[in-house]
Amino acid sequence: MAGVVGRSQSVSVEVTHREPERLLAWRTSGTEEGTARIAMELAEKEFGTSVSIVVQHSRPNPCDVHAALEQLLDELGSPERRPFERV
After folding, report:
1. pTM, rounded to two decimals
2. More confident residue, 84 or 53
3. What whole-number distance in Å separates Cα of residue 24 and Cα of residue 7?
């Protein structure tokens, strides 16, 4: 979330909506630099799970936000982060 609002340090967030195993939404809380909201929705899709991420932000250059989100997705998709192991 810090990357989305343009900070190098962590920011406080507030959960705004939660539906277990389906939806989680949160927004920045107490930041002066900018505001952001993120919602992640999970849905069953054929043989897996579809993940939808919606981001709203107040940064003037959306490329900065895209870079922060790409970095997050790369980190989450890395083999070290996967919650399973292939044998």
Report:
1. 0.70
2. 53
3. 22
